[in-house]
Amino acid sequence: MPGAGLRRQLWWFAGIASALVAALVAVAVTLAGVVVVVGVLAARDPQRGTAPSTSSVAVADGAVPDRYRAAFDYALTLCPALPAPVLAAQITQESGWDPRAVSSAGARGLGQFMPGTWKEHAVDANGGGAEILDPADSLASAAAYDCWLLDQVTGKGYDGDAISLMLAAYNAGPGAVARYEGVPPPSFSAGQTHDYVAAITAMAARDTVEAVPGLVVAGSVPERPLPAWPVGADGLAPNTEFGRRWLQASFGVVVPVSSCAASSGHVEDSYHYDGHACDVMVAPAGSVPDAAGTQLGWAVANALVADHRGLGVEQVIWQGRIWTAQRPTWRDYENPLGSSVTLDHLDHVHVSFDRGR
């Protein structure tokens, strides 16, 4: 039988071991909680780990000529993953913002598209047909093509960041990026592609500023939507379509065309409304949003109110509150259809755009 002293030592060691085990369990639980939190945050942010969106950075004043600002803003809505300073630097490098620029190889316009690439990737930004020398069409096409290239060169294990790979593909084609599994070296094409990427990256870094929350790019949404903003094949009015894309680019929310509907005209809040309305989902349909969803909803709602003139917003309904351009204050919302306010407009922000703007 062990002596009393030995038993005390054994109990002492057992106590120490139990404490160590408890500490390890606590650390494991804490780490598991961190993993869960990180996993939830990553799930909420589809852009995590990818190129910054247009809502996170903006382009400095002077980097985009004023006459092209509105067309530039619209182009960015076609590629939310494309930082505004990168597109501005890219156009500066390509054409120096000369819409009639023609290279010795036959590339034309602001985005310097070759005829074959233009035929495949051209975007009609104003409803008049895609014209390679039209600045709005060229800007929109460059942004859309950038997004297409991002899909071609990312997620394949290539060396380099997504934006550099995209720029290299714009200059030399995605095949060259695949061949070198990254940005082609200076030995490729006399260093043209390597220098192209370096020049645009440096220019974009120089012209990057923090964006104003809720705006797609620096400056502001124009006071009046351009007539050139296109009516999509789905029939949405120009400002509604821009507003839909603006929300997606600014906040990362998904606003499908199917969530927007045309109104046949009705009287609400003492004025006649006849336009389009979209539902911006911030929680699963029919559910009450959590704290993060509620915060996102208010960010969306307040941004719509702040920029209502440029977006043509007539009313915003969220969390039992309503704001209208006719009475520009937040107040309690009473649903004319009689549904309970505690259940109505909780999972989404409801925004109405004026059809006639």
Tell me the strand percentage band. Answer: 5-15%
Biggest β-sheet, characterized?
A: 6 strands, antiparallel
The Rg value, from CA coordinates, equals 27 Å
Name the helix and strand elements from N-terminus to C-terminus, one letter apiece.
HEHHHHHHHEHEEEEHHEEEE
Tally the helices.
Answer: 11
Task: Find the CATH topology of the largest domain.
Answer: Lysozyme
> What is the CATH top level name of the largest domain?
Mainly Alpha
Taking pLDDT < 50 over at least 5 consecutive residues as the criterion, the unreliable ranges are 24-56, 212-233, 265-273, 339-343
Secondary structure topology:
Blueprint: H1 4-44, E1 57-59, H2 69-77, H3 84-95, H4 115-121, H5 135-153, H6 162-172, H7 174-180, H8 192-206, E2 208-210, H9 238-251, E3 260-262, E4 266-268, E5 271-273, E6 275-281, H10 291-306, H11 308-311, E7 313-318, E8 321-324, E9 331-332, E10 348-354
Antiparallel strand pairs: 1-2, 3-6, 4-5, 6-10, 7-8, 7-10, 8-9
Descriptive keywords:
357 residues, alpha+beta, Lysozyme, 6-stranded antiparallel β-sheet, two-stranded antiparallel ribbon, 11 helices, 10 strands, 43% helix, elongated
Give structural notes.
A hairpin with a 2-residue loop joins strand 4 (266-268) and strand 5. The protein has helices at residues 4-44, 69-77, 84-95, 115-121, 135-153, 162-172, 174-180, 192-206, 238-251, 291-306, 308-311; strands spanning 57-59, 208-210, 260-262, 266-268, 271-273, 275-281, 313-318, 321-324, 331-332, 348-354. Helices cover 43% and strands 11% of the residues. The chain folds into two domains: 57-210, Lysozyme (Orthogonal Bundle); 238-354, no CATH class. With 357 residues, it is α+β, with helices and mostly antiparallel strands. The strands form three sheets. Strands 3-6-10-7-8-9 form a six-stranded antiparallel beta sheet. It contains eleven helices and ten strands. Mean pLDDT is 74; it is low at 24-56, 212-233, 265-273 and 339-343.
